[in-house]
Write a structure and sequence with these properties.
It contains 6 helices and 9 strands, in the order βαβαβαββββαααββ. By secondary structure, the protein is of the alpha/beta class. 36% of the residues lie in helices and 25% in strands.
C-alpha cells in the first residue's frame, strides 16, 4: 500500500519565501477548490504557521466578497480590482464585507501593502484573472457527499437546493478556468491532516 504523502506548512512557507514576491512586496497564497472541501481550515493553519514565524499575515475569505449566492464572479472582480491590483502598485487594498443576512455590502476592510503573506481562500481565489500575482496556488478537494454534508450542517437543510445549484455552477467554473490543473499543490481535505501538515493527493509541482 502506498504511503500517504504529506508536506508541512513550515516547508511551504520556506519555499514561498525563497522566491521573490509577485504582488508588490506581498506574497499571495490562493487556496481554491470546491465549497466544503476544507479550504478555510487550510488557510487558517497556514496563517497560524506563518504568524508563528513572525510574518505579517492576513487572510481574506472570498465568502466576504461574493454578492450573495450568485455573486462569486463579481466577488473575484472586487478582489482583483480593489485588493490585488492595488497591492501590486504598492497601495493599500480594501474591500467591503458582504453581509449575508442583510443581503448587502457592509463595513470596509483594509489590506495593508506591508502584509508579507496574503492568504485568499475560497472559490474563484485562483482564477486566471489573478495572474501573475500568486506565489502559491493550493487546490483542496474531497468527495461531493462529504462536501454537501458539511454545507448542510453549516447552513441548514433548507439550503440543500442552493448548495446543489452552487455545486453545479462551480463544477463548470473550475472546468472553464482549469483551476485544478493550474494548482501548485493538490490537497486532500477529508480531514485526516494534522495542524502542522497537509495531505497531498498528487505529486506536488513544487520541489521536494
Amino acid at each position: 500500500m502506498e504511503s500517504t504523502k504529506t508536506i508541512t506548512y513550515d516547508r511551504l512557507i520556506e519555499q514561498v519565501l525563497a522566491a521573490p514576491p509577485q504582488l508588490g512586496e506581498t506574497r499571495l497564497i490562493c487556496v481554491d477548490g470546491p465549497a466544503g472541501s476544507g479550504k478555510t481550515t487550510v488557510a487558517e493553519r497556514f496563517a497560524k504557521a506563518a504568524e508563528a514565524r513572525g510574518l505579517r499575515v492576513q487572510v481574506v475569505h472570498m465568502d466576504d466578497l461574493y454578492d450573495g449566492w450568485d455573486g462569486a464572479e463579481r466577488g473575484f472582480g472586487l478582489l482583483r480590482d480593489h485588493v490585488l491590483a492595488r497591492l501590486a502598485k504598492g497601495l493599500e487594498g480594501r474591500y467591503r464585507r458582504y453581509d449575508w443576512i442583510a443581503g448587502a455590502y457592509a463595513e470596509v476592510h483594509l489590506v495593508p501593502a506591508t502584509v508579507e503573506l496574503l492568504i485568499v481562500e475560497g472559490v474563484t481565489s485562483a482564477d486566471r484573472g489573478a495572474e501573475p500575482w500568486p506565489s502559491l496556488r493550493i487546490w483542496v478537494e474531497t468527495d461531493n457527499a462529504l462536501r454537501l454534508e458539511r454545507g448542510i450542517e453549516r447552513d441548514g437543510e433548507g439550503m440543500r437546493d442552493r448548495w446543489l445549484e452552487w455545486m453545479r455552477w462551480e463544477r463548470d467554473h473550475f472546468a472553464a478556468e482549469r483551476t485544478r490543473d493550474r494548482a501548485d499543490l493538490i490537497v486532500d481535505g477529508a480531514g485526516q491532516a494534522t495542524e502542522a501538515e497537509l495531505v497531498l493527493k498528487e505529486t506536488s509541482k513544487l520541489s521536494a
